[in-house]
Amino acid sequence: MEKDKKNLPPGYFAAFDKALLSWIAPEYPHQEKSWLWFAVASVVLALLVLYGLFTDGWTFSMAVLVFAGTYYLLHRETSPLVEVKISRVGIKIGIHIFSYSQIRGFWILYDPAYVRRLYVRMQSRFRPDVFVDLGATDPAELREILAKHIKELKGLDEPFGDLVVRLLRL
Fold first, then answer.
1. pTM of the predicted protein model
2. Cα 37 to chain center, whole Å?
3. 124, 63, 118: which is closest to 93 by C-alpha?
């Protein structure tokens, strides 16, 4: 990390103090769940555990229980809030800084009833797409600022995995 800091231009981190646009967003999406969601999830969990036990797949049953317990522990509280800053040198989401040279492009999904997200595709094929909730941020203003620095990737939609997570309220 120290080596990377030496290669950065002077004033790199100070550029985020003078952000072109900033807002507060949840670190990760948090879906409120109804009693019906918990009832259906409990039935599915019980059926999977019973299936594992009846087919002599006790390791499958244990894996399902560990997964369910981990999910519960990670999702019982709301997501912490992080500050998102768009500057002349990059994008900062909480403690994560992405310089424009690391970013291949961006796209914005904006359907206020369902999804309001900024997606960022990284140059490296081994780094996943990054997304952040827009909240009340004006998507047109954000698009205008980002288009000056990085390419907008037109025609992209919500990744299938994100869509499934959102629809199943996971």
1. 0.72
2. 22
3. 118
